[in-house]
Design goal:
By secondary structure, this protein is an alpha+beta fold. The chain is built from 5 helices and 4 strands.
């Protein structure tokens, strides 16, 4: 019985590790391209646009979360500054952001 429980726990741990790794990879922002900037505080939300522009990113659209923005830029230029300010850079894929077309992209 102990052997079966230990084997199950080992398999569960491996599945958890694989799932976590896949989630991390899918949410990591691209080296260059569309990046979702998600502020973690109200203060950070007031700084997102300015910090992104200061780091040569181009504003594209509002993000799906309060205060978040989708920008086009370089991960290396954005990540350190954003994390220090309480803003998390994520991959801006369509599954996370929904449809970024229409009025948000053009206005």
């Amino acid at each position: 019985m102990y052997c079966c429980v230990a084997s199950f726990l080992g398999l569960a741990a491996q599945l958890g590790l694989v799932s976590s790794t896949l989630a991390f990879i899918s949410l990591s922002p691209p080296v260059r391209g569309e990046i979702l900037l998600v502020p973690l505080t109200t203060r950070a939300a007031t700084q997102v646009a300015r910090l992104a522009i200061d780091r040569d990113a181009r504003l594209i659209a509002r993000g799906p979360f309060s205060g978040s923005l989708v920008v086009e830029g370089e991960r290396a230029r954005l990540t350190g500054t954003m994390l220090t300010a309480g803003i998390v850079p994520l991959a801006a894929d369509s599954a996370l952001c929904g449809a970024l077309a229409g009025a948000d992209r053009n206005g």
